[in-house]
Design a protein that fits this description.
This protein has 105 residues and is α+β, with helices and mostly antiparallel strands. It is built from two helices and six strands. It has a four-stranded antiparallel β-sheet, with helices on one face. The protein has a two-stranded antiparallel sheet with strand order 3-4.
Length: 105
């Protein structure tokens, strides 16, 4: 097993393509996204739509990168660009991966 870092971003679904562009621009080889629901400082959201009028569902995006510096670059770039005007959180987790070549450009 090899050490890596997972970046988790939970934000508004409308930002998915823009967040993906930041992920790719920072050298990640891929990401996974799923619908996300829950409750936070900006209200309650379901996976099919928001209980707050006019807002769509959230998305959870996970990215695994080979080193923490790259993970922090992605997390910081997303937070700086979007989290002033959109709901969102990001956090990092240490993970172990089996095939490190899958996470290198």
């Amino acid at each position: 097993m090899h050490d890596a870092t997972k970046v988790v971003i939970i934000t508004e679904g409308v930002l998915l393509d823009k967040v993906a562009a930041i992920i790719e621009a920072n050298g990640a080889t891929g990401y996974t996204h799923v619908a996300a629901g829950g409750k936070g400082s900006r209200g309650k959201r379901s996976t099919t739509g928001s209980q707050v009028s006019g807002l769509g569902p959230n998305v959870k995006i996970e990215v695994i990168v080979s080193n923490r510096d790259k993970a922090e670059q992605i997390a910081d770039a997303v937070a700086q660009r979007f989290f002033t005007n959109y709901s969102g959180i990001t956090y990092l987790e240490p993970v172990e991966i089996l095939r490190p070549h899958k996470f290198e450009l």
